[in-house]
């Protein structure tokens, strides 16, 4: 079978925050993401699964080029085969890559919802048509017809997510949390980008709407686009994704096909197996202990303190191994272990 074309490839991404050390004017570096790898191909939904604080949102922000000012990133981000620096990412986020942010605070509080949904689409078209060619753009885009089409599409999307037309005339503060989430989601769908980065898109939605969102992601991916679905909900991810990337304490510990989750013995990393054991259908066996805070990360494997298979070599460097068509970062799969 022909390998699908890559949309996004992230290699060895590291994100650190500059911070002052206690009782000293010295600035230290706090790495919160370390050596992280993710790939999304055309036609794929890739789910990034990990518990709170594992670095999922920071990954989304690194891809969108919107990390906070005190963060420094290194590593490589490729979009459709081209390496992207800050400027390239900025251009892409207006056109090709859309974010469904985790926080509803991303809505502009001073602008009516409808204008925001359509405004984002306009911004994108401007980039396509050439920003400084105002008049030509009007002719080129057929302004009136275009506007009617956009409004019709917006109304269709609003209805699909159980929102009345009137919602377009509200300000964000007049929306409930769940309504605001739906607006963020349909804004991304409205753009028709090539890649959607959806950071916890469904909390606050009821089951039917969450299912609708997943179905829309599936259709979007089947049209040859890509979705990076960020979630702490493995069950949801298993329903819709093609591949699962498991995060633990700021790094990728495993990359597996969804079908690997049909049989526990196909899973590779002890943490992935622990997540699997915690699924409702598997008896909710919660893993004792907590994910370490980035400041207290042990050397070597961050999961080692909670791992039943722990051995001395876990304290050293752990390379990524390719196993059964997936990837794993665990000493059990390296030579001489
Ligand atoms: N601006 C910041 N300054 C310092 N540390 C930060 C900053 N933003 C995030 N972090 C730290 O980076 C780590 C990863 O945060 P991130 O928001 O990516 O987690 P997450 O996996 O998205 O969690 P959640 O599931 O709760 O949304 C956390 O330990 C967090 O404390
Ligand atoms: Ni997050």
Automatic annotation (TrEMBL):
<dbReference type="InterPro" id="IPR017871">
    <property type="entry name" value="ABC_transporter-like_CS"/>
</dbReference>
<keyword id="KW-0067">ATP-binding</keyword>
<keyword id="KW-0547">Nucleotide-binding</keyword>
<dbReference type="InterPro" id="IPR013563">
    <property type="entry name" value="Oligopep_ABC_C"/>
</dbReference>
<keyword id="KW-0813">Transport</keyword>
<keyword id="KW-0406">Ion transport</keyword>
<comment type="similarity">
    <text>Belongs to the ABC transporter superfamily.</text>
</comment>
<dbReference type="InterPro" id="IPR003593">
    <property type="entry name" value="AAA+_ATPase"/>
</dbReference>
<keyword id="KW-1003">Cell membrane</keyword>
<dbReference type="GO" id="GO:0015833">
    <property type="term" value="P:peptide transport"/>
</dbReference>
<comment type="subunit">
    <text>The complex is composed of two ATP-binding proteins (NikD and NikE), two transmembrane proteins (NikB and NikC) and a solute-binding protein (NikA).</text>
</comment>
<keyword id="KW-0472">Membrane</keyword>
<dbReference type="Pfam" id="PF08352">
    <property type="entry name" value="oligo_HPY"/>
</dbReference>
<keyword id="KW-0533">Nickel</keyword>
<dbReference type="GO" id="GO:0005524">
    <property type="term" value="F:ATP binding"/>
</dbReference>
<protein>
    <recommendedName>
        <fullName>Nickel import system ATP-binding protein NikD</fullName>
        <ecNumber>7.2.2.11</ecNumber>
    </recommendedName>
</protein>
<dbReference type="InterPro" id="IPR003439">
    <property type="entry name" value="ABC_transporter-like_ATP-bd"/>
</dbReference>
<dbReference type="InterPro" id="IPR050388">
    <property type="entry name" value="ABC_Ni/Peptide_Import"/>
</dbReference>
<dbReference type="GO" id="GO:0016887">
    <property type="term" value="F:ATP hydrolysis activity"/>
</dbReference>
<dbReference type="GO" id="GO:0005886">
    <property type="term" value="C:plasma membrane"/>
</dbReference>
<dbReference type="InterPro" id="IPR027417">
    <property type="entry name" value="P-loop_NTPase"/>
</dbReference>
<feature type="domain" description="ABC transporter">
    <location>
        <begin position="8"/>
        <end position="274"/>
    </location>
</feature>
<dbReference type="GO" id="GO:0015413">
    <property type="term" value="F:ABC-type nickel transporter activity"/>
</dbReference>
<keyword id="KW-1278">Translocase</keyword>
<keyword id="KW-0921">Nickel transport</keyword>
<dbReference type="Pfam" id="PF00005">
    <property type="entry name" value="ABC_tran"/>
</dbReference>
């Amino acid at each position: 079978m022909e390998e699908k074309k890559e949309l996004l490839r992230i290699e060895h991404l590291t994100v650190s925050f500059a911070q002052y050390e206690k009782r000293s004017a010295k600035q230290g570096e706090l790495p919160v993401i370390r050596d992280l790898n993710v790939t999304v191909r055309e036609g794929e939904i890739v789910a990034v699964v990990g518990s709170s604080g594992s670095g999922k949102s920071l990954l989304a922000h690194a891809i969108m080029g919107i990390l906070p000012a005190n963060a420094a990133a290194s590593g490589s981000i490729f979009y459709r085969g081209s390496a992207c620096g800050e400027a390239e990412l900025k251009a892409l986020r207006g056109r090709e890559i859309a974010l469904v942010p985790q926080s509803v605070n991303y809505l502009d509080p001073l602008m009516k919802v409808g204008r925001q949904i359509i405004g984002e689409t306009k911004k994108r078209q401007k980039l396509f048509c050439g920003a400084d060619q105002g008049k030509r753009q009007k002719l080129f885009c057929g302004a009136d017809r275009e506007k009617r089409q956009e409004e019709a599409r917006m109304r269709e999307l609003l209805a699909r997510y159980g929102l009345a037309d009137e919602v377009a005339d509200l300000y964000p503060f007049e929306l409930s949390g769940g309504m605001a989430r739906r607006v963020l989601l349909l804004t991304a769908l409205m753009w028709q980008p090539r890649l959607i980065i959806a950071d916890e898109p469904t909390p606050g939605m009821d089951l039917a709407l969450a299912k609708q969102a997943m179905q829309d992601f599936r259709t979007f991916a089947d049209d040859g686009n890509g979705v990076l679905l960020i979630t702490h909900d493995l069950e949801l991810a298993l329903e819709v994704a093609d591949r699962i990337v498991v995060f633990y304490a700021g790094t990728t510990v495993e990359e597996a096909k969804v079908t690997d989750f049909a049989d526990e013995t196909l899973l590779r990393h002890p943490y992935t197996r622990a997540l699997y054991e915690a699924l409702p259908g598997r008896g909710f066996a919660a893993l004792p202990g907590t994910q370490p805070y980035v400041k207290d990360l042990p050397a070597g494997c961050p999961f080692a303190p909670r791992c039943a298979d722990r051995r001395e070599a876990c304290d050293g460097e752990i390379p990524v191994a390719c196993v059964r068509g997936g990837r794993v970062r665990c000493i059990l799969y390296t030579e001489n272990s």
